[in-house]
Design a protein that fits this description.
mainly alpha; about 65% helix
C-alpha cells in the first residue's frame, strides 16, 4: 500500500533524508568519533562533548551569528540526533 504524502510531508522527509545523508557521510569520514572520542585534550564523556557542541550551536542561534558558511540549525539537528543515537547505544538499543 502506497501512502501519498502531502507537500509538507514530502518537505519533512526531504529534510530528514538530507540530515541522515550528512551524518552518514561524516560518520564514514570520521568514524564513530562522536561516541568514541580520542580524548587527547578533553576527558569529558561523549555525552558531555555532544552537549557542549549543542550549547555552542544554541549560543550562535541566540546571538544571531554564523560562522563562515555553516548551517547552524542543520548542525544543531545533527548533534541532537547523534545524542539520541549515543543514548540508544548506551541503553543497548
Amino acid at each position: 500500500m502506497t501512502i501519498e504524502l502531502t507537500d509538507t510531508q514530502r518537505q519533512i522527509k526531504k529534510e530528514c533524508d538530507q540530515i541522515a545523508a550528512l551524518l552518514i557521510t561524516k560518520n564514514a569520514a570520521y568514524g564513530n568519533s562522536f561516541s568514541e572520542p580520542i580524548n587527547i585534550f578533553s576527558r569529558q564523556t561523549p555525552e558531555e562533548q555532544l552537549k557542549i557542541r549543542i550549547d555552542d550551536k544554541l549560543n550562535r542561534l541566540a546571538k544571531g551569528s554564523t560562522f563562515q558558511n555553516e548551517d547552524t540549525i542543520l548542525d544543531l539537528v545533527g548533534y541532537l540526533i547523534l545524542l539520541r543515537v549515543l543514548d540508544n547505544q548506551r541503553r543497548g538499543g
